[in-house]
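User: I'm curious whether this sequence folds into something compact or stays loose and floppy. Could you predict its structure so I can see for myself?
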Amino acid sequence: MIESDVVVIGAGVTGLTAANRLRAAGLTVTVLEARDRVGGRTWTNDIDGVTLEIGGQWVSPDQTALLETLDELGLDTYDRYREGSSVYVDAAGTRTEYTGDIFPLPEATANEIERLVEVVDEYVAAVDPARPWETPDAAALDETSFRAWLHTLSPDRVATDNVELFIAGAMLTKPAHAFSALQALLMAASAGSFANLVDADFILDKRVVGGMQQVSERLAERLGDAVHLNAPVRTLRWTDEGVVALADGGLEVHARQALVAVPPPLYSRISYEPPLPRRQHQLHQHLSMGFVIKVHAVYDRPFWRGSGLSGTAFSPYEVVHEAYDNTEHGSEQGTLVGFVSDQHADDLFTLSAAERKARVLGSLAHYYGDEALRPVVYYESDWGTEEWTRGAYAASFDLGGLVRYGADQRAAVGPIRFASSDLAGQGYQHVDGAVRIGREVADEILAVTPVSAGEGAAGSSV
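Assistant: Here's the prediction. I'll summarize afterward.
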């Protein structure tokens, strides 16, 4: 049996940020992680001798909480390669190289896309990402799908297809008819604006030298043997006075407070004794993960650069709807990373592995030419098969769910609190949001959990 002030369930960025902050304030913490590694949805791994970012990797200028953490942990960043032309493939399959932020579409459609971005940002300006359910006309916006809402704003379907891409395919990874306009506005507001989301040079600005998983690894190192791997929590017994967490390996942790720092779809993997209140049972059923396949294709060199291409490519009509130069810092090899989301990803997994690879590489070849068909390493990050994640990138509400349940998604249940990047306001879905909400929930726990006499502060102030 372990006695601790706080038991943290999940050793991702949120859980480890909170645990370090709690320990720094003088509380004792125990972290229980189901996987055999820390990092959650950040995972840097060697595949066939090549280092790949299996999970989250990007750093943007507005992600100040993450940038502060990287600096405090001594981690450096480098710019994503972006010199040269980008590539766009239209609905007819026509490939065009271009520069700048505007897709090479007919002038009227290009202008309509710019207008739609401005209109969406007028709505975004009224959204507080911490309380989107308080947005003017929130109920109506939450009852309308993002696709249907865009169709009311413009009759140009090529324009709306392209605007959909930046939220549906690139962020929420669900079909645009499956989530609300309000959920889309929250996604944009959490990044500062919709204009930021459509600007790849902003939202996908930098990467971490050595990989993003180092954030969790270094935070875990500071906690030492307080972090237990291969320890999925099966039962959480609770009263108003405290909790008992029962995990695999015979681990039993008695604590005053519990933080459940895992994706919402995993809450039900824990048996709560007594059961959670009805409100939590209901709202948790309305949060579901998106689905995206992150495809890595490694070549003996970044051949596209020799053709004057940046590696950046887009098309709402391709299997791979967006792709980038993802070459590792200091590597002579070249890596392309592409993304296949929502129904396209579903369709790919009806195929054999060989057929799936052929479809993906064929799509990359539409952007970069036939040399893209011959990678030396090919790998698919399929988070949908991960038992302790079950999708990617994050969870979002179904139609009407954000207004109906949003205000209660972080409500404490006795000594139990819930936090993850899925529930963040600013930085929603991103590592930055995981850091922010980890800090916030730690402060909430500290407000109701006084440090016992004789305990002193130690560790990081992350």
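Summary: The CA atoms of residues 65 and 432 lie 6 Å apart. The domain at 2-41+213-276+413-448 is CATH 3.50.50.60 (FAD/NAD(P)-binding domain).
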